[in-house]
């Protein structure tokens, strides 16, 4: 099982959000559940290279 943090807010009637690792790619839903489903679909598209020029965030460890 994979976990990923996301950020969301409610704007009038829509829940809008993005995956914290990919803040340039927002999605929305009429409910929080629909937003979460759309975020999962977005992650599938990102990981399958459906979306070009993805900016990725990683951690760099220094000794």
TrEMBL record:
InterPro entries: TTHA1013/TTHA0281-like (IPR035069). It comes from the Bacteria. Gene3D superfamilies: 3.30.160.250. This is Type II toxin-antitoxin system HicB family antitoxin. It comes from Desulfonema limicola.
């Amino acid at each position: 099982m994979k976990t990923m943090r996301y950020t969301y807010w409610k704007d009038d009637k829509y829940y809008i959000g993005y995956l914290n690792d990919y803040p340039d790619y927002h999605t929305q839903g009429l409910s929080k559940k629909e937003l979460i489903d759309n975020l999962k679909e977005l992650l599938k598209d990102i990981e399958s290279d459906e979306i070009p020029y993805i900016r990725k965030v990683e951690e760099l460890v220094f000794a």
